[in-house]
Amino acid sequence: MNTTADERRREILAQPSAMKEVYGPDQDTVNPHTIVRGPDAWHLFYGPWPGSHNREKRHATSQDLVVWERQQPVLLPGAPGDCDRRENGEASVVRHDGRWHMIYSCRPTTASSRRFALAVSDDLWRWEKVPGDGTPVFIPNSNWSGWTEEGVLECKDPWVIPYEGRFLMYFVSQNRWGDSCLALAESSDMVHWEDRGPLMVFHRIENPIQGPSGFEVPRVVMHDGKYYLFVMNFWGLQYASGDDPFHFGEWRVLGPWHGSSVFSDDQDRWYITHTLRPFGKPSTSPPLLEPLRGLYIGGIVWSEGVPVPVDLGDVLERHE
After folding, report:
1. Is the model's pLDDT at 152 over the cut of 80?
2. Angstrom distance (rounded) from CA 296 to CA 274
3. How many independent structural domains does the chain possess?
4. Domain limits for position 208
5. Model pTM?
C-alpha cells in the first residue's frame, strides 16, 4: 500500500531520536551535501558515497524538509580530460547576479589532487558547467599550499558566503608541511578567485575513534550579528564564533555528527544535518564495512549565543 506524504511526514517526525532520518537509504545514501531554499522547494545536492567514490551530483527536493523526493542528477562526470571526470565532491550553492552558482570539488583522474569547478543555474534544476571547457576555477597557491597536480592532496569542502559586496570561500587544504589548513579565497564574480591562504592551521592527529584528523566540511553562518564557524575536526563537530568572518574565538564541541550543514529558513528556524552513518558511529572507521545511511535533520535553538541541538519537530512547530 502506498504511503501518502502526510503519513510519511508523521512517521518521520515520530522517530524517537531528535535528529530524524528524513531521506533514508531506501531512497539513497547521502554523504557530501548542501541544502538550499529555492523559489519552488528545498533542494538537496549530494553525493551518495564516501570521499572519492562520488562521480555525479545527485538531487532531491522537499516542501517541508521532512518528506523528500529523489530527482535526476544535476551534474554528470565530465569528458576525458575534464577537471570533474573522476570525482564530483562537496559543493556550496549561492545566488549571484540573478543566477545560482555551485562551487564543487572535483578530480580529473584517480591520481589527481582535488580542485574546484563551477556550475550555474537559473532554477536549481538545470545546471551548466562554467567556463564550459572542462577547466577548474580554483587551485590553491603553491606559495603556501602543498597542492600538486598529482598526489591526491586536499583542496575540498568549499563553503561560500557573501560579504560586503564580494564572496568569501572557506575550504580545506594542506600546507607544504602536511598540516591541515582551513583556508580562505575571495571573489567578486564567483569565477575568478584570489587565494588568501590559511585562516587557521591544525597539526594532524591520527586516532580512528575520535574522528577526522584534520579540518573537514567548514560551514560559516551569521546569527544575531555574529559569525559562527562549524567544522569537523579531531573531537567531532566543533564551532567557534567571532564578530567578523575572519577571526573566531575558542572551539567548542557540539557533537559527533558527520558532514553537517547548519542553516535556517525564512522564519528564522534553524536546522542541523548528519549523514552517512548511524548517529555516534566513529566517522573514520572503514566506511564500507557497515550499512550506510541517508540524510538526518535536527533542529537548533540559540541560547545566549550557543547553538543547542533539539528535536526537529519542535523547531518545525514554531510559527506553523
Report:
1. no
2. 5
3. 1
4. 5-316
5. 0.94
